[in-house]
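User: Okay, second chain of the day. Same drill as before: sequence in, structure tokens out.
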Amino acid sequence: MAIQIKGDGTFAIEYEGPFQGLDVSKPETLISDKASPNQNNFMLRNAELRSRPALVQPFGAFGPFQLGVTSFLDLNGTYHTVGWAGTELFQFSPGLLPGNPWVDMGAAAPGNMETNPVAYRTFANTVYYTCIGFIAGAPHRNIAGGGGGGRPPTTLPFMGYWDGILAAPVFSTTFSDTSVALSAAGISRTNSPTVGGSLPGGPTMVGPLAIGAGFIGELNNQLILANVVVKDQGTGTIFNFPNLIWWSANGLPLQWDPTVNTSDGFNPFLDVPDLITGMATLGIAGYIFRTNGITQFAPTGSAVTPFAFDHMWSSEHGIGNVQPWSIAQYGPSAAFVAEDNIYTLSVTNAQPIGGTARDAIYADIANAVAAPFANITPIFKAGYVYLTYVILIPMNGFVRKYIYSFEEKNWSTWDLQITGNPVQYALTCAPNLV
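Assistant: Same drill. Structure tokens below.
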């Protein structure tokens, strides 16, 4: 704001936009009058300074934890909003059950998904999903309860799906040799020794194999799993491949066996020193995020080798994604939190956007009680376009929300009092707040 002092001693305060938002990059006496070192609970839009409205959770809670929420359109033209918690998949059906808008559609996994976020992707009017416990993030990240070597609870590796028409979700596959994998992505008992022997380290596997992952995406009409975990159901042994991606056959999202279809396959990325922390597909190319780098991949047109991979860098240290659930995508752009800054990624380049708010964001991440989550929101409500990248950081007793405006290129903060443990709130997916 600008202050004008007149000759008679009177003064006027004028609010001038556009506002530059949060600025902690310099001492307070040196920042612009249009910036603030500690603003909170304001909206910065169209060169205006507005107080933010109160937010509510429209969907309410279901189960002990909410692990993900998404919407998809089935083959009959019906939209479904679904979420996961515990072992179940729930569908949002307001008015069906008095006092409870969620209907339990049945078991969605072979075991409890604990507090591990569910990764999902809609393909051919069906939502496919996966969920595992894995080490993800910077080695020194703050873990609730202290220390820097913790990890989420483990769960059985699997992939499931629901088309909105079946009575219940599906998370198993029955093969021609009558063996059953407890995953929609699996390998028969007959073929397990061959496929297992070609995995990193050449492990001996009995089978059938159940495949799961930390992340799921789609490119070239093929589902792609990243940061893969495989269970040999014959021995009960679980194998972790944090640098491996595995893709389905072209147009066949339930076919994952490369000995059956040559367009199936996997790539272990043995030449990178870190692990996969996320994935995004932008146009004709996909991007695999690692803690210290990014790998670009694109279709080749060949059924035998359907993807070409290019490590944009694979050094011991470099720009990568250290907060797995900070990756968000909207159209041709993605955003993520790296070790040194916050970036947007397009098909051509990566641009830092942390700006003058970067240090405040990283200070709160360092003091977070659980992993941050992020998303890109195109509208705030109907008729109110507000394209923003939002980072939600769980703190003691509240969640701090950092909002980056793509139009005005500034940051603002809100403090959200979210229903839950009043001392420590661990997000298991980005809250659905309006």
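The first strand starts at residue 2 and ends at 5.

User: Thanks, on to the next one.
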